[in-house]
Amino acid sequence: MRLSDLRGRTVAVWGAGREGRAAVIAIAAHGPADLVAVDDSANFLTLPWEGPLAEAAPLITGEEGFERLAAADVVVRSPGVPQTHPWLVELRRRGATITQGTALWMADHGERTVGVTGSKGKSTTSSLISHLLTAMDRPNVFGGNIGVPTLDLPEADLYVLELSSYQCSDLTDSPRVAVVTALFPEHLDAHGGEREYYRDKLNLIAYGPRTVVVNGADPRLAFELGDRAAIRAGTAESVNVAAGPDGAPWFHLVDRPLFPRAVLPLVGRHNEGNLCVALAVLDALGVDVVGRKDTLAVAVAEFQGLAHRLTEIVDPSGLTFVDDTLATSPYAAIHAIDAYEGRPLTVIVGGNDRGVDYTPLREHLAERELSVIGIPDSGPRIIEALAGLPKVRTELVDDLTAAVQLARQVTPAGGVVLLSPAAPSYGRFRNFEHRSQVFAEAIHATAP
């Protein structure tokens, strides 16, 4: 289904956040017979619905919202509406036509798109791909889950999108190049279970992409793919890291050396894998990765990373504060913790509680010495999961500002204070940017 297919039909947009707002404006321009917006989760964080938005579609709240959804020819749900929402379950039972803004957009733009998803690494990898393509004289527009909503993107010859499992779930068209960086249990409450989550995530590759690129070092992803044809980055058959001409680790395309690992400014082995995937995508798009390796090396060295992924914040105390608010699962937090191995470490955890199993985090920290501070809502459950570990010191506080204040007291000089929540931001914050903003403000407010 395309945007143009909504002309003359009754449409209900479900969600009043960034994606829902973009959908209302885009759909209104295509002449629907009737257009309404539905918000069943309005709270103190909700932004005003006014101006062009209110003119394009009235905002319906409360129980009346379901009646308007059920009466519509097409429901365009925002990604934040979970698959398990009772209204969505009932709408599907009734056979309602349900789509998303990203699915409507992809129907028209998929052939010009690199789409990147994954339980870990999708944000950094998609950003790397866009950055390196630009350096290779391949202009592109970057957007999706972490950037501009797809329906707000300008026209372009090439797009690079970072796509969440929520966005992937309603796709009926795959992008030209479909990329998957990792798979592990995430967002299970929103998808209905582990199998359902993998199904929705891998829906990105379900509709005939020209090329599939995956992280070949991820065991669960390898299992789910089976013998499906794909470029497996991180293995000897694609881009990989191995000993180079000087004996130090280098990036290679198969057996041809490209540049040293030291060129990449991002910490952690997981970021080596992200760059392997990004370079494999460039190679699949026809970029001469070997012939232009020197230009690529300069571009890699200049890559700044994402604002909310292992981003270090300068502090006069000598402590290193690190914003890793995009780490919304225990597995992502594990990667972040490993990136600072060998330094005194305090980790701030907790956020929206989706009932995730934190046993993997406990097992990973069994022999580690560090402090962990828990904040609402999932903080108490994470701290409980870590109970009894002999080298892990735990504390609970009421909010993020209090966590930063306590971290200053318990972290040794020269140490690291890492916000790697292992949980999403929703509930206490509007989105991940809001959580990062509060973290930065807390660091400033508590500075000596």
What would CATH call the homologous superfamily of the largest domain?
Mur-like, catalytic domain
Give the proportion of residues in helices. 25-40%
> Going across the major beta sheet, what is the strand order?
7-8-6-9-10-11
Number of domains: 3
Which SSEs are present, and which pair or pack?
Blueprint: E1 10-14, H1 18-28, E2 34-39, H2 52-56, E3 59-61, H3 64-71, E4 74-77, H4 86-93, E5 97-99, H5 101-109, E6 113-117, H6 122-135, E7 141-144, E8 159-162, H7 165-168, E9 177-180, H8 188-191, H9 194-202, E10 211-215, H10 219-225, E11 231-233, E12 239-243, E13 249-253, E14 256-260, H11 269-284, H12 293-302, E15 311-313, E16 320-323, H13 330-339, E17 345-349, H14 359-364, E18 370-374, H15 379-385, E19 392-396, H16 400-410, E20 416-419, H17 432-446
Parallel strand pairs: 1-2, 1-4, 2-3, 4-5, 6-8, 6-9, 7-8, 9-10, 10-11, 16-20, 17-18, 17-20, 18-19
Antiparallel strand pairs: 12-13, 13-14, 15-16
Helix pairs in contact: 6-11, 6-12, 16-17
